[in-house]
Every structure is written in C-alpha cells, then in structure tokens.
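Bench notes, afternoon.
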Amino acid sequence: MEQILFPGCFVCGPDNEWGLKGTFETLPSGEVKGVFTPHQRHCGYEGIVHGGIIMGFLDEVLGRLALARDRLFLTRTLEVTFRKAAAPDRPLTALAREVEWSRKKFLAEGTLTEESGAVVATAKGTFLVMTESMERKLLKEG
C-alpha cells in the first residue's frame, strides 16, 4: 500500500524541486519500504552523498511506520551507523520495522542499502505519536 506524501516535504514532497522525492509503501509484513535516488546536489564531498541526507531519509522511513497505522509522528531520537559511502545517481532502498509500539511512542529500526544489497547505513530511533488534536490541526492546514 502506497503511503501519503506531503507536497513540500524535503524527503517525500513531489513539489520540492531540491528534495529527495522519496517513495514509500507499507509492505504486507507491516514494514515500510522507502526508495530514492540522490543527486549530485545531495553530496557533501564530490561523489559522496552527504550523511545528513542519509540520516534524513532513514528518519522519514522509520517514522512512517506510524503512517502505516494512520497516525502522524515526531522524531524524538535517531541513531545512525554509517557502513559505507553512497554515490549519487544510484537508487537507495530503506526498510524499516517496528520494534515496540505504545499509545504515545514507538521504537523502530531500519537499514539503507544500495541496489547490490550492500548496507550503506543502519538506524534506530524513538518516535512520538502525535495527539489526535495535533494531527487534525496539521492536516487541516496542509
């Protein structure tokens, strides 16, 4: 099942010309899969995708586990371990899985890989589930 996109979002927004234009889907297992292809403009050093871009994409994919439950989220903590440099113009795929879920927060972990299956980075994080009133306000404005 494809997930909702937010037009101006840096990570998922189809209308953000400088953004990552990531696509996301909830798998039958409940995991969330995200895919994007970084460009040269997303690099720090020549030919190496900036670590902040990698972190931002992993943050989004892990957090989108909440969207799989029809809820919005806020990131509380995120820890990323970089395994290898990623090159621009090559698709990257992230897979996120829920570790623990409660009414107010959830724990998640995930992996970002290249097409070859080589691991670029792993992540784990704690995410806050938005209150329903906060969700209504954001969705009304957006």
